[in-house]
Amino acid sequence: MGKRTGKEKLGVLRTISYVFSTISLITFLIFSAGYIGSGITGVGFAAFRVQQRPINTRGLPTIFLSIASYRDPQCMFTLLWALKQAKYPERVFIGVLQQNHPDMDVDCLSISLQNGFNATDAELIMKWRNQIRMGRYSYLDARGPTWARYMAIEKLFQQEDYVMQVDSHSRFVPQWDELIIDNIKQLPPNSVISHYPSLFVPGEEDENGLPKDYQKIISRMCKGFYNSDDILQPSGALYALDKKESRSNPFLGAGFTFYPGKAHETVKMDPYLPYLFHGEEILFSMKMVAAGYKLYSPAENIVLHYYYRKDFPRYWDLSSIYPDFHQLQKYSLMRTKYIIGTLDYEQVENVTWTLQEIDKYGINWKDPVVKGRLDKYFTMFEMDLKNKKMGDFCSKGLPEW
Ligand SMILES: *[C@@H]1O[C@H](CO)[C@@H](O)[C@H](O)[C@H]1NC(C)=O
Ligand SMILES: *[C@@H]1O[C@H](CO)[C@@H](O)[C@H](O)[C@H]1NC(C)=O
Fold this sequence. Notes:
Helix content is 26%, strand content 20%. It is α/β, with parallel strands linked by helices. Keywords: Glycosyltransferase, Membrane, Transferase, Transmembrane, Transmembrane helix.
């Protein structure tokens, strides 16, 4: 197998992944055997140490902020602003799934005077340190963003009330935790809030890390297109934010998603999608819909996102290191298409690999309730994945759930 060669050659550079522990008087160390077996690419992981600490959240609903970071110098700013802008930082639990070069990259947690931060910022991180869970991996262990988000939930999520998934280059509006919880409480019980966040550019922000006039426009997903892999990808439009209210949403975007933590009791993040990029969003959307969730855009901007990152390392750089990158990516795409129903079993290559544990991570189309929900979703958004169709609601307005 090609991957063995790559792994052996670079094995020396691999670092062991671990979760940092801090000193606390009452500490329960839970050693969870972190081996995810022969899954993914055969790379084993060291035992994962996760601390559970008695933290006083004062009865506030808690949020797990999932941040997947691939060699991203912006990660530490994302972490800092998340805590700085929260109304109640004590209810924000942050899981950083970091994939760094052991020598060349800055750690997401290195918010210190040494690195040019002032005392206020450095102290803030110290103060909330117990709420930050780091999963540190070598970039050579990285298997793409879908995998990283799976790992963040699998290893760092501790059944907080809500999950908020963002990218490692994000900014947050003041009191974001309160705003987004108020927002979801006004929606039906099983709702997911998501969109493609508006843009910020580092160096052009105001003193709150935000662009000028960030509440004037909002992006909403209102159409889709089929890309060169024949996968439906979300697309949207920008609207004047004259009235703060959520709209129904045909998709979830990976860069900003907010939903009840209990969703993961039924919707399992899939470990068998190495290097998947496009395809993640329609897959996650459909899995949530299948589980009875309704998708909405946020009533206002909660998170801003840095889109045009030039010259930063990206996970696809790994394609030059791992000879089996493209093969595995192809299998992941096939798995995705099989789950969403656009590829038949007979068309799937290498099924023993490609469709591992598919009953656990796929969609149970045989369940009439599940099928009914998805049929309704397709009708509502005029989608026909096999015939590559989807309605365009950008000017005519989105249908109601
Ligand atoms: C510390 O730096 C932050 C920017 O990260 C700034 O907003 C804040 O005003 C600074 N505090 C002091 C005391 O200089
Ligand atoms: C299936 O794919 C895996 C991962 O690339 C590979 O190790 C295995 O040899 C493949 N099996 C077949 C039958 O192609």
